[in-house]
Fold this protein.
Amino acid sequence: MKLSIPFNPTDAVVLVILLFLFIVGVKIVKGFFKTPNRHK
């Protein structure tokens, strides 16, 4: 399977940044749901 999408180093940097933000967001959401309710 060959994709005819031009790929620049800038695109790679943006994809890495988005991947990093996605991983951080998943960790935050997991931590948010894992902790018991401390508001009571």
